[in-house]
From TrEMBL:
The keyword Nucleotide-binding applies. It is an enzyme of class 7 (translocase). One of its GO terms (cellular component) is ATP-binding cassette (ABC) transporter complex. One of its GO terms (molecular function) is ABC-type quaternary ammonium compound transporting activity. It comes from the Bacteria. Residues 13-243 form the ABC transporter domain. This is ABC-type quaternary amine transporter. It comes from Ferrithrix thermotolerans DSM 19514. PROSITE patterns: ABC_TRANSPORTER_1 (PS00211), ABC_TRANSPORTER_2 (PS50893). Its EC number is 7.6.2.9. Keywords: ATP-binding, Nucleotide-binding, Transport. Pfam families: ABC_tran, TOBE_2.
Amino acid sequence: VGQGDGKGQGVSVRLSNVKRAYGSVLALAGLSLEAEPGEFVVMLGPSGCGKTTALRALAGLEPIDSGSVYVGGKDVTRLPASKRSIGMVFQSYSLFPNMTSLSNVEFGLKVRGISATERRRRAHEMLEMVGLIEQADRYPHQMSGGQQQRVALARALAIKPEVLLLDEPLSALDAKVRANLREQIKQLQREVGITTFFVTHDQEEALSLADRIAVMNNGNLEQFGTPTEVYSAPATDFVASFVGNVNVFEGTLLDKETAVVPGVGNFPYRQSEETPTPGGSAEILVRPEAMTIRADSDGEYLVTDVTFLGSNVKIKVERGDTSFIVIQGSSDLDIVSLGSKVSLEAKGSAILVRRKAHL
Ligand code: ATP
């Protein structure tokens, strides 16, 4: 999606069957992924799943064993990093410590042989864009971590790259700054319209930033979908457990649409590869907010913890020796008290039904 003002052009980006091994470790096991022009893709997964390797392969900083990388439909697999039109921001400490913000932002332009007047103009424009024009003459050590990352972002965008790659750019910052900068990055990305890949292991960050999330595990793509798809219709067991909180009930399948959970009742569900045939027992995965809780002296669940979270309340209940989490609106707070019996009822659907785990 071109912006028509010479800013980001928004190109498609494609990884096709990319493999990369380190000795016997398969960091990328044939990764295929395509981002639409201007799309914000978040690569999410546990430590060691291959996110950084994927990003570095895109940038040309990492040799790949096989597969191809396309930017704007062009095969760049064999192009070195310096010939790819890519801006990058790393976790931290990526600014040159002996240069001011302005010189840091100018750096890439200087390397590209852009005239002093033009690069000064563009560096000012970029610092303005990230709200740091007042800090133009400061050195990295004179700025907060959040400000440094904004300078790093300005520096990455100054060269007007076709693609922006961000590798855990917020993880070194404290919670408040992180949330704030997250919003700024999202807004900036929309304004500039640049195709962006953002690596994180933080699911909340992924859900709030992404147009689509690529959930990775063991060098493989588990699912590539919108935050809603990934959260509400996880393709695999791994995605269901990795993104968001989940309760695992043991129950039975009434038919191809309805599961039955003891002490709760019927739950609608959606078939997936993991679903066993109806009739037998199964594990039924339910989000904490997909149930309602009711005070009930005959209820089969015991309230063992209540945590007030502001607009929501998190209630821990137990049945036998298994515990479950229910999230309710705060207005329902008075219906539950610690040690009381309650019953649960389906409000939404189960997100996944799978065979019972082997013991
Ligand atoms: P993290 O969130 O911890 O950064 P990640 O998902 O980014 O993890 P990668 O850094 O891509 O994961 O690593 C994928 C796998 O490849 C891991 O098992 C890692 O140990 C291995 N690996 C990465 N780089 C190297 C290297 N230079 N030499 C050997 N093994 C490596």
